[in-house]
């Protein structure tokens, strides 16, 4: 006979969320008071008081989230935010990679091609994976030791149980640290990337999504997994889309198949993607990968950065154009392809923080609006990103 379901213990659950209705919380003198349990004997509620930031008002709902031993309180409030509209109609293409985390190209003739290296993200990810594997190994050894003692019908020392409990808690704290680290830095990076796209006059951004499909199907070595599988590309795309909405910019995900092998100058990427696999494999392309990260265009006998080339192909797919000559003349296109600027994620944030003044910044909840950008934002574009 099947057994009836039992209530799961918190230690066996990684994450769950429940929402409180309006009767379960109240606001009093900048404090949020949560009514968690009613005591029938004392006829009083067991309450938790949380101090609210001064800008949080008109709270509509409260969610309590449990994640790996910690509780988080998510507060949903209504804030009137002035609608922003793009200050231009340029388009941008973004190619996502492991080493070159974001490769940004644009139809804006003033902007250089931009490679934002994800070295810091990759280094943190590798450190986290090594530490995780060490702790996981200790947990497995301790569990095996306990099981062996049980199978031999020997008494298991309390020290072993305490050691196992301590290791599991350490493992959970490590997972929480990783989530918080990536959430924090990706929030900062996407905020300034969205701001950069706004002040440079973009209204649409096309992002490659094939890297997400590759992650879901991959069966790589442990070293490749450390570099590739655990990088949160989906989190990055979702955060960027959310931030771009502040400025009225639309993010569209596109198929990036064959973008790094096809030349953005000579090949028709639309035609190549529509071909059947058998025909496509026999097709002689104008581009050839000669080294890791380099593409040789045979017709021009020139070498370009493969990721920049892929980003321009993504731009062609998004804009539905066959030839980049409709956007740029030959000289400008060569400048954009041959002279990309490369910066690290944290350096990119630092550069934008230095050129955007503090005084016009208005905070509404977690949103930052730079009002002065509405009356001509080109003055705030860093010089290192402009084609001279």
From TrEMBL:
GO molecular function: DNA binding
One Pfam family of this chain: OrfB_IS605
Top-level taxon: Archaea
NCBIfam families attached to this UniProt entry: IS200/IS605 family accessory protein TnpB-like domain (TIGR01766)
Family classification: In the C-terminal section; belongs to the transposase 35 family.
Probable transposase IS891/IS1136/IS1341 domain residues: 83-164
Protein name (record): Transposase, IS605 OrfB
Domain Cas12f1-like TNB: 233-314
